[in-house]
Amino acid sequence: MRSRFVEQWIAAALQESPVRANSLIITVFGDSIAPHGGTVWLGSLIRLVVPLGLNPRVVRTSVFRLSRESWLQSEQIGRRSYYSLTAAGRRRFEHAYRRIYFAPKNGWDGDWQIVISTGSGLSAAQRDTMRKELLWGGFGAIAPGILAHPSADPDGLLDVLRGTGVHDKVVVLKARNIGPLTSRPLAELVRACWNLESIAAGYRRFVERFRPLLRALRNARNRDPQQCFAVRTLLIHEVRRVLLRDPQLPAQLLPSDWPGAVARQLCRDLYLVTYREAERHLHATLETATGGLPHAEPDFYDRFGGLPP
Q1: Residues 42 and 83: beta-carbon distance below 8 Å
Q2: More confident position, 99 or 228
Q3: Residue 47 domain-assigned (yes or no)
Q4: Would 300 disulfide with which of 1, 35, 126, 205, CB 3.0-4.6 Å?
Q5: 101 and 212 share a domain?
Q6: Higher local confidence (pLDDT), 240 or 47
Q7: Residue 215, pLDDT above cutoff 90
Q8: Inter-residue contact 70 to 88 (CB < 8 Å)
């Protein structure tokens, strides 16, 4: 049964914060399609995203652009076009969404990862690309040509350096903080490198916006599959905007009233409330070259600490 409150919430969300088609389609592919084999017929993708405010012309234009940008690849079978994430697109998505689906590790012993790019082996374009990727990945610029992150994921860092072709052209160091992990100079360095006030404000807006929706869905006797798909997609799309700006610093370096944990818990709770019905909607709507959508891969159920099958 469709909820009037949820329907109004979705309409208001799309009106107040219009989504960019390219970005929303990547969210749909990464969150909903990739776990199910990764390839769908374009016509069924159009049916899926129309309730999210995207008309067929916009979807066709977007998937064409995303193909040119190496996010998507297409295959023509008969008169139908099938789209999937490229290997590079899937890698970029997985690197980003690892930060959404899995909580950061607790505890910090003062370790830092430092990337130094002051040598002459990098072209200006390589240096700029690497800098953008590392800043997007949570690193902070502590000095010209020097980026650092406390407790950064070494595998993720190496993926970025290899992906930008600079792994053999920069110096990567592991350092350790000497002295208290909550010293005043360290706090000043953190404030200078990361705009925590802006990130905290984003988390608070997210909580204020989505918390009423969680209450409504928890109290609903039956949940509409299409509405649950829309909520789940807008949830991940919105939390991405906030969470991917968060450098995920250790608790020792954050303010005592940091709202990130509350926002992450809210995201997890909403995902748990909606994912089953959303999965039903995906199976009822999407088509592949062999027919229906395959069942989700096992690692789909690892999201948010474990999703009941």
Answers
A1: yes
A2: 228
A3: yes
A4: 35
A5: yes
A6: 47
A7: yes
A8: yes
Alpha carbon distance 221, 253 (integer Å): 43
Whether 184 is covered by a domain: the verdict is: no
* CA triple 30-36-42, angle to 5 deg: 75
pLDDT tens track for 268-303 = 999 999 999 999 999 999 999 999 999 999 999 999
Same structural domain for residues 30 and 65? yes
Task: Give me the DSSP letters along the chain.
Answer: ---HHHHHHHHHHHHHSPPPHHHHHHHHIIIIIGGGTSEEEHHHHHHHHGGGT--HHHHHHHHHHHHHTTSEEEEEETTEEEEEE-HHHHHHHHHHHHHHHSPPPS---SEEEEEE--SSSS-HHHHHHHHHHHHHTT-EEEETTEEEEET--HHHHHHHHHHTT-TTTSEEEEEE--S-TT-HHHHHHHHHHS-HHHHHHHHHHHHHHHHHHHHHHHH-SS--HHHHHHHHHHHHHHHHHHHTT-----GGGS-TT--HHHHHHHHHHHHHHHHHHHHHHHHHH--BTTBSPPPPPGGGGGGGG----
Amino acid code (one letter) for 186: L
